[in-house]
Design brief:
The protein has helices at residues 2-11, 14-40, 55-83, 91-119, 122-151, 155-183, 189-201, 236-254, 295-298; strands spanning 209-218, 221-230, 258-266. With 306 residues, it is mainly alpha-helical. The chain has two domains: 2-183, Cation efflux protein transmembrane domain (Alpha-lytic protease prodomain-like, Up-down Bundle); 189-298, 2-Layer Sandwich (Alpha-Beta Plaits), CATH 3.30.70. A three-stranded mixed β-sheet has the order 1-2-3, covered by helices on one side. Helix 1 (2-11) packs antiparallel against helix 2, helix 1 (2-11) runs antiparallel to helix 4 and helix 2 (14-40) runs antiparallel to helix 5. The longest helix has 30 residues, at 122-151. The radius of gyration is 27 Å and the shape is elongated.
Length: 306
């Protein structure tokens, strides 16, 4: 941030100010992200039975909002400068400084995205993507400043600033949209799809159907609840063992700490035509079809025959 503001005071370029102003957001947002990651790592307590992971969504919301505000301010100032331009100078030196900061931000952003994926941290991933966007902005700045230096078209400074600000506002929208979706417990269809694939690939004959499946992330933990239909003649111990198998399988395959709430349903005569349980003592009709578990089927709050 200090390097970019140094480049701005050296060049008096609105284009450079665009990048410098966004760096203020980087510092503020990263400070809040630091606190949110610390809080999200705290264990569950009586007031937070699902943990503190959702604070990450607030962090991303604040970061996205600050980026958007910075973008709007940049557009207002740059529009004013189109009509009332000011002299700019030392553009190549400013471009060199911005280029160096862009390389640093790009390396840090890539590292944070990789860490965010391995630690399942939305905040680290969002902050890393913000820094990658900052690197892209810096590359555009270097190209733009060089162009202005050799063409001497001063209005390009403000015009390019507005284009970059629009990109910043778009980045802001994506972050805010993602955070609001998380706070509203919006379904993550990719996670649900992955769960359904794991269940389908490891499907046991006793698992007659799975329905009303829902999944929600709370920080680094995944919570899943669903209904599992099992043969009605199973005793309680057998039912418990089948549920435990689902629990262990999901936790092993996903590599994420997952808490499952599984409601078990007894099978009904109408289940027989798609049940593959061998030597069933209560079967009323032969199996005539195999129902593939898909998103449309598994997320419904109905058995497969309903």
């Amino acid at each position: 941030m200090m390097a970019k503001f140094g480049a701005y005071f050296l060049t008096a370029s609105n284009f450079v100010l665009t990048d410098a102003a966004e760096s203020i957001v980087n510092v503020i947002a990263s400070s809040f992200a630091f606190f949110s990651i610390y809080l999200a790592a705290q264990p569950r307590d009586e007031n937070h039975p699902y943990g503190h992971g959702k604070v990450e969504y607030f962090s991303v919301f604040i970061e996205g909002s600050l980026i958007g505000i910075a973008g709007i301010i940049i557009i207002i100032k740059s529009t004013y400068s189109i009509f009332y331009p000011n002299a700019i100078h030392d553009l190549l030196t400013g471009a060199a400084i911005i280029g160096a900061t862009g390389i640093i931000n790009g390396c840090l952003g890539y590292y944070m995205i990789q860490k965010g994926r391995s630690l399942k941290s939305m905040t680290l991933d969002a902050d890393g993507r913000h820094l990658i966007a900052d690197m892209v902005t810096s590359i555009g700045l270097v190209v733009g400043l060089t162009l202005i230096r050799f063409t001497n078209i001063l209005w390009l400074d403000s015009a390019l600033s507005i284009l970059v600000a629009i990109y910043i506002i778009y980045s802001s929208y994506k972050l805010v949209r993602k955070s609001v979706g998380g706070l509203m417990d919006e379904a993550d269809f990719q996670v649900v799809t992955d769960i359904i694939k794991v269940l389908g690939d490891r499907r046991r004959e006793a698992w007659i159907d799975v329905h009303n499946l829902r999944a929600q992330k709370y920080g680094t933990e995944l919570h899943i609840d669903c209904h599992l239909t099992l043969p009605s003649y199973f005793d309680l111990t057998t039912v418990h063992n089948e549920v435990s198998l689902v629990d262990k399988m999901i936790n092993h395959e996903f590599g994420v700490k997952t808490e499952l709430f599984i409601h078990t349903d007894p099978c009904l005569p109408n289940c027989c035509h798609y049940c593959s349980m061998p030597d069933c003592p209560i079967r009323s009709e032969a199996q005539t079809e195999t129902i593939e578990w898909t998103m449309d089927i598994v997320v419904r709050n109905k058995k497969h025959f309903e």
